[in-house]
Amino acid sequence: MIRTRTLLFYDSRLRRLGPLALPTLWGAVAVTWKLGCPLAQQPGLPMRIATSVLFFTVGTGLILGIRRGLSRELERMRVIADATQRVLLRPPPPRLDGLSVAAGQLSASRGASVGGDLYEAVATPYGVRVVIGDVRGHGLAALGAVVAVLGSFREAAHDEPELGGVLR
Q1: Residue whose C-alpha is closest to residue 145's, from 155, 156, 136
Q2: Model confidence over 104-158: pLDDT tens digits?
Q3: Mean pLDDT (whole number) for 15-30
Q4: Long-range contact list for 97-105, CB < 8 A, 24+ apart?
Q5: Mind spelling out the 3-state secondary structure of 53-77?
Q6: Residues 16-25 as b or e (16 or more Cβ within 10 Å = b)
Q7: 49 and 106 inside one domain
Q8: Number of H helices, E strands in the chain
Q9: Which of 61, 71, 72, 64 is nearest to 29 (CA)?
Q10: What domain range is 103 assigned to?
Q11: Do both 15 and 36 map to the same domain?
Q12: CB distance 131 to 119 below 8 Å
């Protein structure tokens, strides 16, 4: 098991470093060219321009490689956050025991889809039970509290005949 975790750790590191392979190779070629090629060591404007263009290209490649890797990571995190939000805050049915029900969530943080808001409406043998709340905190830090509150409500709403029992 430890060996598998170690291999997964190195595999994920290699995948993250993959976009940097080509720019790093370009950088090695540029440094080798600058230090080892007699033409690159000649004084004069044309060689300075050629060297500057080469190093500018390498720098641009490194920046674009890092940006591409970060963009992929951000997109993966958004997909995970959206899936988490859909699992936690399921859309309620349009009608529940004769009541019209609708719900929505709008995050205060731009681009954030996971937070401390929660809602649930269920029909039970004791009537319709609804919970609406906002736990303390933001983002992933508040997610644990949301999971605990919704899980407790979903269980207690069906088991407790009195609202006080559901609240406890």
Answers
A1: 136
A2: 777 666 666 667 788 899 999 998 999 988 888 776 677 888 888 888 998 999 9
A3: 70
A4: 97/123, 97/127, 97/128, 99/128
A5: HHHHHHHHHHHHHHHHHHHHHHHHH
A6: eeebbeebee
A7: no
A8: 5, 4
A9: 61
A10: 95-167
A11: yes
A12: yes
